[in-house]
Amino acid sequence: MTTDTLEPRGVLRRIAARPAALAALYLLLAVVLAALGWSGLWSVFSLLPDRVSPWWTLVTASAACSLLPLRPRAPGAATLAAAVVFVADLLTVGGLVPLLVLLDLFDAHIVRLGPERRRRLLVVLVPSTLAPLVVAFALSGELRDAVMVGIQFGALVGMAYWYANFKAQSREMVELYRQRAEDAARLAELDRASAVRSERERMARELHDVVAGHVSAVAIRSEAALGLPSETGDAEAARGALRAVRDASLEAHGALRSMIRVLRTGEQDLAPPGRADLADLVEAANGAGVTATLSDESVAELPAPVDQAIGSIVREGLANCVRHAAGAEVEVRVTVALDEARVDVVSRGGAALARPSLEGSGMGIALLRERVLALEGELSAGREGEGVWAVRARLPVPVRPSERILHERN
What we know:
Layout: H1 3-6, H2 8-16, H3 19-36, H4 57-65, H5 75-90, H6 97-112, H7 115-140, H8 143-226, H9 235-265, H10 278-286, E1 291-295, H11 304-324, E2 329-336, E3 340-348, H12 363-374, E4 378-383, E5 388-396, H13 401-409
Parallel strand pairs: 1-2
Antiparallel strand pairs: 2-3, 3-5, 4-5
């Protein structure tokens, strides 16, 4: 048993939550008031010629208390019925309990109304509260008595409305905060799912860009070494193929170690190659079964995102040539103008290897297209004729106003 249930306030709260118990409490109060002779409280409104016994207040009190069980299911109808009982009590014996029951049911009804309906009800309550003042003045002819009656009814009804409205607003605020908390929890869950998805996409991109090319090179060079005749004259070619396998394996191992370090330490993503690495990419492709040349005569410095995008495009283009166009002649051309950079990777000839079978998933081109679109550029990849396959990209380059003026003058 909690401490709150042992305190008087806790006991009253539990009684108020049970309509039957509250009705019994009001009836007990009516009996006590009748024993004390409390009746005729609103004698100015009484239509009876003589004052009656206080025990007659139990009639209207019992009728009012019988409406309390309707409070949880139909507080509005119970309030109207209690108002009728109160008017009957007002015009006859003038007891207190019907008024208390009316205010209790009125409170329960107000709490269930929405903000707009509460405002509309207030418009009705103001003239309803002034009505007793007018009636009292008409019956008694005493303005002072009428004003006192009006103040009493106004204070009681106004306080009841204010308190019920306060409880209703408090519940609405609690519901609003609960909804906001649920929305915040849903947004946090969406953010978490988005972060997990982004992390998975990042890992997939890094694995594809950094490791897939080296692993495919290992497979290709291993197959080439296995396909060499076993004569002594081919020993040097076999050693060269195995050396290429070793180099590609070491590069793949180093890339994997770098990725593991990034994942464990939370460092920045592995930086893709840039224009400075294009010569190494072409050399690696030449050692993997294609004949590649590089044409990049511009010395203009590019922003880091554009520079890295060029390196990614060339790397993916060469990797596709190695996997799907063995023996092809590949031309890598980078052209930098004032406000844009163009990248072309064009392969001519070559054929797909029968062994090992390296089927593409299309992920590399899709990732490239996302990167280029993020820079507001354009990317195309596909066949351009018999034996010709090309990856072409156009990347906009931000130009400073001073550079544009100097270019126009020249």
